[in-house]
């Protein structure tokens, strides 16, 4: 990977404000979607562009606006990004619980 800082940033955003969902498509195919929801359009757009650039595919994302609450939603579809994210998160140190 050429840009581990970008993966670290994106992983932090997902852990803080986003989530990952997997959808079945057909019998044997699963689609992996990375989702970020925020009222800040620039934040959502930059996240989507950076995530798409890691996969090296043109326009591999969608940004929508939810009418009821004004949230912008970015969806990035990439199994490769999901696998990188999973590996990166696994290598993070575990938070220790403080004893009282």
What percent of residues adopt helix (DSSP H or I)? Answer: 40-55%
Distance between the termini: 42 Å
Listing every helix as H and every strand as E from the N terminus to the C terminus, the arrangement reads: HEEHEEH
Mean pLDDT: 81
Number of contiguous helices:
3
Q: Spans of 5+ residues with little confidence (pLDDT < 50)?
A: none
- Reading side by side through the largest sheet, how are the strands ordered? 1-2-4-3
Explain what this protein looks like in three dimensions.
The protein has 100 residues and is an alpha+beta fold. The longest helix is centred in the middle third of the chain and has 15 residues, at 41-55. It contains 3 helices and 4 strands, in the order αββαββα. The mean pLDDT is 81. It has helices at 4-17, 41-55, 79-91, and strands at residues 18-25, 29-38, 61-65, 72-77. The chain has one domain (4-91): Homing endonucleases (Endonuclease I-creI), CATH 3.10.28. Strand 1 and strand 2 form a beta hairpin. Helix content is 42%, strand content 29%.
């Amino acid at each position: 990977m050429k840009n581990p800082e970008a993966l670290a940033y994106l992983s932090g955003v997902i852990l803080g404000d986003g989530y990952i969902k997997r959808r079945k498509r057909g019998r044997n195919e699963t689609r992996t979607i990375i989702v970020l929801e925020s009222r800040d359009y620039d934040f959502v757009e930059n996240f989507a562009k950076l995530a798409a650039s890691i996969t090296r595919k043109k326009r591999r994302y969608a940004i929508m606006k939810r009418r009821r609450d004004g949230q912008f939603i970015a969806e990035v579809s990439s199994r490769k990004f999901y696998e990188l994210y999973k590996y990166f998160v696994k290598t993070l140190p575990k938070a220790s619980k403080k004893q009282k």
